[in-house]
Amino acid sequence: MTTERLLELDAVSKRFGRVVVADGLSFGVRQGETLGIVGPNGAGKTSLFGMISGDLRVDTGDIRLSGTSLTSLSTARRVRSGVVRTHQVPRPFTGMTVFENVLVAAQQGGGLRASHAVDRTLEVIEETGLAEHANVVSGRLGLLSRKRLEVARALACGPRLLLLDEVAGGLTDPEVDTLVSIVRGVNARGVTVLWIEHVVRALVSTVDRLVCLALGSLVAEGKPSEVLARPEVKQIFLGTGAAVDEAPGGLP
After folding, report:
1. H or E element, residue 24
2. What domains can be seen in the chain, in order of their start residue?
């Protein structure tokens, strides 16, 4: 991992009426890094992903990828630039097979054609452990496989920056471990990862740094153990001085 910043947020703000989802946010993600984002419901985490991916327009501030501003680019152009996101609730084409879903992503998101699109589709299906489900209609998949497919579709677009939005939510402990292994593998081959997650153990075992948000503001950032030990972070999550890892099931 280098010290070069792939993604930079510079004083980014966004509000919906009186609700502030980003209040002058400034932080960066280094090339090759895995950065985790935690925060209570309503902290602005998913809205942040929307602003990075182009689903939401910022009110003020700038978002840059390798020094180039993204703020005026459409979602499609950001995908072609290498910024690709997943969603909390998987969004496959339920009447299409796993293979067909990933192939569409490789073609439409990744801009690949013919055998190149097929090759990437097969590689991603193998990487995400979906090979045995390749010909299964996605609407019949279980939760873990739907989560894997959501990641696979994003990877088929050829991301430089992969935005993961609570992909471990609702999974059992062994399923979380499986997903963590996939994310580690993706990062190991050079993809920078920005990961929102309520399953804290998944983040702590994977990310290089952690950012805590609350009410659209940056509360803390640093090594996971240091961030989770800070009194203000404990207060945000638990309303007490208890350790964050004492919360049942991780963060609320």
Report:
1. strand 19-30
2. 5-82+159-246 (3.40.50.300), 92-153 (no CATH)
User: Checking DSSP bridges between strand 192-196 and strand 161-165, what pairing results, if any?
Assistant: parallel
Going from the C-alpha of 247 to that of each of 41, 207, 252, the distances in angstroms are: 15, 20, 8
- The residue among 175, 122, 167 whose CA lies nearest residue 147 is 167
How many CB atoms sit inside 10 A of residue 226's CB? 13
Strands (E), 87-190: 161-165
| Dihedral sign, Cα of residue 182, residue 159, residue 30, residue 73 | negative
Give the pLDDT confidence of 207-248 residue by residue, as tens digits: 999 999 999 999 999 999 999 999 999 888 755 433 444 343
Q: Which two tokens stand for residue 158?
A: 């050829």
pLDDT tens for 47-80 read 999 999 999 999 999 999 999 999 999 999 999 9
Q: Which residues contact 95 (CB under 8 A, 6 or more apart)?
A: 137, 138, 139
The H or E element containing residue 149 is helix 143-156
CB 166 within 8 A of CB 86: no
Q: How far apart are CA 71 and CA 130, in angstroms?
A: 35
Nearest to 47 by CA among 168, 118, 39, 27: 39
